[in-house]
Amino acid sequence: MKLTIAKHCLAVIMVWSVCSCEEGFLDQVPDDRLTEDDVFINKNNTEMFLANIYANVPDEMAQRFVTTGNGYGNSGPWTGGSDEAEYAPWSGTPNEINTGNWNASSDWVETFWSRYYQGIRNATYFMANVDKCVPCREPLVNQYKAEARGLRALYYFYLIRMFGPVILLGDEVIAPDAGLEEVVLPRASFDECVEYVVSEMEAAALSLPNAPAGSSAYGRMTRSVMLAMRQEVLLMAASPLFNGNGDYADLKNADGKQLISQEYSPAKWQRAAEAAKAYISEFVPQYHDLYRKNDSGGNFSAFLSCRDVMLDSWNTEWIFGRPGSDVTTRQYDMTPYHAGALDVSRGGGGLGVTQQMVDAYFMANGTSPVTGYNPDGTPIVNPASGYQTTGTSAFRAPDDSQSRTVYNQWVNREPRFYVGITYDGRAWLNPNTAGLITYTRKTGNSGSSQSQWDFSPTGYIARKNMIVGDRGVGGRALVLYRLANVYLNYAEALNEYDPGNPDILNYLNRIRERAGIPGYGDEVDVPVPASQEEMREAIRKERRVEFAFESVRWFDTRRWKIAEETDNGPQYGLDINSDPPNFYNVVRFETRVFEKKHYLFPIPLDETLINNLLVQNTGWSAN
């Protein structure tokens, strides 16, 4: 592979300052340009080089155009490109995904590949040279090496979940002036990639602190981060996309090497479950626990717990996060247009939530509102749920000061629904503009008649992780991985290899209890799923709601091999070109394109052209 893997060579190294303030290690600004000889001359320069490697950690708050954001960005199309949401027409990459208008020549495909390999290359170079930093000394040098090793493993994980099998560079040091040299290597098999990543995470964990050593270390690699991501890698490897997937029978290197195993292995599920359980045993509750918050009266509030787990930076549930993130971009996208309101509560409102996602949230009684859909997109109502699709009622949302007239579909839903969704007639959450009500109907203050571009394409707007205050206020962190992920990973993996194990129900119900809804078996209308298949579906439903808009759903639908159903064909929302009652009609806003080839990203075209050993992913053009 010619070093487009590292187009951004180190001949001149751009370094980033490490902020010593409470925002943490990744809150960086450009500082200086150093030559290779200067990097390891003192501790400050060495730490700035390490911070430069950290800058590749994705900023998932800038997903409208996936390669923008603080540092190197690396934000993905995961929210607007999944069945959770739809960005307004002025958005870029997510809409290209939804229409199938992308390929191996798309610049952002190349950007992901090159930037993560840049981080990998720089981490390896750092590990090989940090001993030159005499002032650093041990054990600090060992910790720095472990952080770089952990980051390198993390970037490989991000690559393989997008591209599948990739090229493993190992510990080969690529010199800073090697931009014109060629390193022609074939792809390793997916299982080889997994073993490498897991072993590197385990090795890094041995020399890392269990948790951040104070607020200035937030966002840095720790033993907790490494072992949490290890079980995430193993869950992915056990999933249908990579565990005996016959669709990739022909994905082989030029020498005939099979890149994705064709043999299903239940042992992979067992290994994933055991890794998750080991993590829980070591870190819960000493270092992490599910976040819980009481209301002003001192009583537990499921709504505040589910809302503020995202907003209360570095709370006990956070395992991994990014201190510096482009929150103001996402906050603009989640703030409705609000014609005539103060600027602090005016935005684009362009991150529209699909009707399918709205219907995925449970009712307050813990039941699913719908059991399926008719050909026209209208829901098949679960009669036990109490879900109504006609009429209005007086209803007070958990964060509202009074009852309002609300469409019955949005009445008596679970707390996470009110955390996640801004609907027509909902009070806005900025106390500096008290009394502001959002109306997404055609002639409403945030409707399609108010602006050429700034309105929701579905009639709903994503609300989760929206600041409770002025939309332009930034400076807060972004959670990338939390304990709830580990709990539901454990339940899923355990159900696949040991169905009926009581821990499955235990950890699934822990999530539901914190969300303020009955656990399975707690109510007559919420019976314990009776089979492995029913439990699998229950776990998947819980993941969809618990991790809504957290860049999880995209990867879940792909590793489960269900994206051909969830992300293909008609997508539905409300009739945004009407006022009530027609506004409440479910209409198709888009017909999406998802083909089998879309389960994996294509290898960038430029890479395959200069490396004759680099085979293209199944279904994508080789030239």
TrEMBL record:
| Principal subcellular localization | membrane
What keywords is this UniProt entry annotated with? Cell outer membrane, Membrane, Signal
Classify the source by domain of life.
Answer: Bacteria
> Which parts of the sequence belong to the RagB/SusD domain?
317-620
Coiled-coil zones: none
Query: Sorted alphabetically, which InterPro entries does this protein's record hold?
Result: SusD-like_N, SusD_RagB_dom, TPR-like_helical_dom_sf
Pfam families referenced in this protein's UniProt entry, alphabetically: SusD-like_3, SusD_RagB
Residues annotated as domain SusD-like N-terminal: 25-228
Q: Where in the cell is it found?
A: Cell outer membrane
Gene Ontology CC terms: cell outer membrane
Q: Which family does it belong to?
A: Belongs to the SusD family.
Name assigned to this protein: RagB/SusD family nutrient uptake outer membrane protein
